[in-house]
């Protein structure tokens, strides 16, 4: 009977290791990304997952229109999920 208790304890221990090394950090990262996407606003400078920098010029629930480049003629709609970094404009 003591052998069965050791096996159960070992399984619980392995489950705890998986939780603290894989599941919990992934949930924290997902929450951080959701907070980032909730904070975006028109006028913010963003970095996309493709490595492009641009400025948000319009938004809907799940898409943004981003203006790229210095000529102000390149406007591309994209999903909010493609945003990985946000820089708020300086208050003057």
TrEMBL record:
Pfam families: YajC. It is found in: Cell membrane. The chain crosses the membrane at residues 6-23. It comes from Enterocloster alcoholdehydrogenati. This is Preprotein translocase subunit YajC. The keyword RNA-binding does not apply. It is a single-pass membrane protein. The keyword Repeat does not apply. Keywords: Cell membrane, Membrane, Protein transport, Translocation, Transmembrane, Transmembrane helix, Transport. Belongs to the YajC family. InterPro entries: Preprotein_translocase_YajC. The lineage of its organism: Bacteria, Bacillati, Bacillota, Clostridia, Lachnospirales. SMART domains: YajC.
């Amino acid at each position: 009977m003591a052998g069965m208790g050791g096996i159960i304890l070992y399984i619980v221990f392995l489950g705890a290791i998986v939780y603290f090394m894989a599941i919990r950090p992934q949930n924290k990262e997902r929450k951080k990304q959701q907070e980032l996407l909730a904070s975006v606003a028109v006028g913010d400078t963003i970095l996309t997952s493709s490595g492009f920098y641009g400025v948000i010029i319009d938004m809907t629930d799940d898409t943004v229109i981003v203006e790229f480049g210095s000529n102000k003629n390149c406007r591309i709609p994209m999903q909010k999920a493609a945003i990985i970094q946000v820089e708020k404009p300086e208050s003057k």
